[in-house]
Amino acid sequence: MIAALGLTVPVVAVAQQPTTLRVVAHSDLKILDPIWTTAFIVRNHGYMIYDTLFALDGELKIKPQMVDTWKMSDDKLTWTFTLRDGLEFHDGQPVTSEDVIASLKRWAVRDSLGQLLWSKVAEVKAVDAKTFQLVLKSPTGIVLQALGKPSGNPFIMPKRVAETPPSDQIKEFVGSGPFIFKADEWKPGDKTVYVKNPKYKPRAEPASGLAGGKVAKVDRVEWVAIPDQQTAVNALQAGEIDIIESPQHDLYPLIKKDRNVSLVTTNKWGNQYIYRFNQLFKPFDNAKNRQAMLYALNQKDFLNGVIGDPEFYTVCKAMFMCGGPYETTAGFADKYESDFAKARQLLAEGGYDNTPVVLLHSTDLYVLTNMAPIAKSLMEKAGMKVDMQSMDWQTLVARRAKKDAPDKGGWNVLITSTSGADSLDPLTYSFISASCDKAWFGWPCDAEITRLREAFADETDEAKRKEIVEKLQLRAAEVPTHAFLGQYNNAMAIRKNVSGSVVSPVPVFWNIEKK
Prior knowledge:
The chain contains 15 helices and 23 strands. Strand 4 and strand 5 (62-64) form a beta hairpin. By secondary structure, it is α+β, with helices and mostly antiparallel strands. The strands form 7 sheets. The protein has a 7-stranded mixed β-sheet with strand order 10-11-12-3-13-21-14. The protein is globular. Helix 2 (97-110) crosses helix 3 (112-118), helix 8 (287-296) packs antiparallel against helix 10 and helix 14 (447-458) runs antiparallel to helix 15.
């Protein structure tokens, strides 16, 4: 009670209003299983609600996340990991070694680096509720890299969920991460909702990349579906939303004029465009026809047609990224110049018979929308017939997993993009995996690429690793798994009353405050 002017008046507590961060993500979320698909929107969803054993910090160094301590035996065959205290799933159950082991086993079936690691694993076992071991058949240097990769990370789920067959999607979405998924409010095409996990115990270190203390500083995060970019920018400027994850590059000048909005580059490693062959069916079951596309395509047409401003893109004939530690143009110096005569010659050698090629076209992601039409034009100039089939990105994501014939609902070519941080070496770069049925969609199958990738994994001498990369690129030019169509950067558009965005290869929403 407070005495004022001789009167006694009560103190009225004012309840603090929950803080809601509204974000326009780069895509609508229609699939919720981050192990079942590699789509980045599903990966981003994974980082909201799940936690990881290890993670990359802001300098791409591997740091422990759920793990407290770990050690490797003197013979380098037994790795022992102990989980930190306080790890709890959203349903109140503690995270145990059994949960981790089940999650790792399911992940290792679908992820290309997980497959490589698991080929070297003799046994994985629980020592106690918080300690587990990986026992290897032979020493390898990829254990921590596999467990800490930014995309395709083994998100830890309850054992009962992780025991879902890898070929099926999970139906329960319980993690131990800093946010809780509100399944009852999820409306594909409208919004996806997450609320702060009040029981999450972050690490003591400052947030850095995907590592450190994941402190949720807002009560609620809503991913709002606004497919039209101009409409999204209008909503941002009006204060109806707080962040656009990936605004259209030609709208940057408009965004820069608004004093209440900033353009912030959080993914400083950029992205790479990917043109992916389906090798199960003609014509791209024949390496000559795949080589033909490396000659028919050129990177600048794609980059100009989508990104537009050379400030934000790089023409690059290095598979493992220009500016990266394994940059080399070996095998590709004469490619990507739209040499249509050479492309037609190779199509003739490959026996291309004029059958229409099914090219999947994403219509709702601006960074991809113009890519397929440009590819169609270049492919036709090389002498191919192209059946471009248009659909939204999430429909494309579901369709690309199908092994049906192209004229029965399958596909021949699709175009996507990948993070530069996932493209720096042959281990994290899933598009170079050629492990047949276990490979990324398109299912390339080549024993020599597989051998070279495994040799890279086991080699510790950097000079020898670079030699292996050159051999790998030369082989990939001979039997292409995909074409890479240049690099680009983008920025988030963020209202200035929002602060704390983390420099990271994946957009994350912990550490962010809203005034």
